[in-house]
Amino acid sequence: MMNDVTLRKIDLNLLLAFSVLMQERNVSRAAERLLLGQPGLSAALRRLREALDDELFVRVGRGLQPTPRALSIAPAIEDALSGIERAIRPQAEFDPASWQGEFRIGMCDNLESAFFGPLAARLLQLSPGARLIGVASEKRDAARRLDEGVFDFSVSVHDEPASWHIRAPLFDQASICIYDEAQLRLKAPLSLKDFANVAHVTVSFEGNAATSIDIALSRTGHVRQVVATVPRFSALPTALRAMPAIATVPESIGRCMAQLHGLTICEPPLSLPADPVTMLYRRVDQADGRARWFRRLFLDVASQALEASGCCVSISRAAA
């Protein structure tokens, strides 16, 4: 059995020289293919003979005849060289027009409302054989579900990523107030007093009413009254159309709701922290042609969707 010292004596150049000699059976032609002088190839062959303790090739007339040892190891060496070639060969460019399969994206429902429709429409144009799958995703389980292959990437407010994940910044999502002016007869801009005194509807997947808004209000000496909490943003428009109340939501979905349901939007009358929306994907997918194309498509669609809705933010250059 070959020991470690012997293996260290055999490098890729020696294996390549052996492979070409097996094909050409002539030192001059083999040296020409390898862009080596004959002395260099002869030296390589000598090193290989010493490492394997076999002549490998014997001269017969003007050519070379492989020994039984050379013939026995040649298939394995060819397989190894072919595997290396396949590994380092540049990947073929991904062709979305001819691709058949699924693209899967994880998003929380407020971002899904803003981006999923435009993304599906663009995908239908560019990759008619593909199907877009939206997966409900919360930041607490995004990393685990990404590793399980549930989606290609997640768009959310993500925690610090693991070393095998990449978290790319997208945009800082500000908050915006939304209400039905027919129910809540207030004109923008809202005063802090009006904002604190009206009824509020909040969104919480876990049913929690208190948010960063309450913390910001407490610093001004105000307390708001939360009259309802819903688990999904989709329930907000009908709630706001039914009663004199206000909701403070991410700007991207707030503007979508205003356009679709005829609601009024305005800036909050106090400073609220912006949430850093990011894209989370696996490091092993960084260079994958299909995954890279899908991520770039989302960035393009999201950028246009934010601009079209009137949001004052844009996609970070770092994400691209």
From TrEMBL:
GO molecular function, one term: DNA-binding transcription factor activity
InterPro entries (alphabetical): LysR-type_TF, LysR_HTH_N, LysR_subst-bd, WH-like_DNA-bd_sf, WH_DNA-bd_sf
Cited PROSITE patterns: HTH_LYSR
HTH lysR-type domain residues: 10-67
Regions annotated as coiled coil: none
Keywords of the record: Activator, DNA-binding, Nodulation, Transcription, Transcription regulation
Pfam families the record matches: HTH_1, LysR_substrate
Family assignment from sequence similarity: Belongs to the LysR transcriptional regulatory family.
The protein's name in its UniProt record: LysR family transcriptional regulator
Organism of derivation: Rhizobium ruizarguesonis
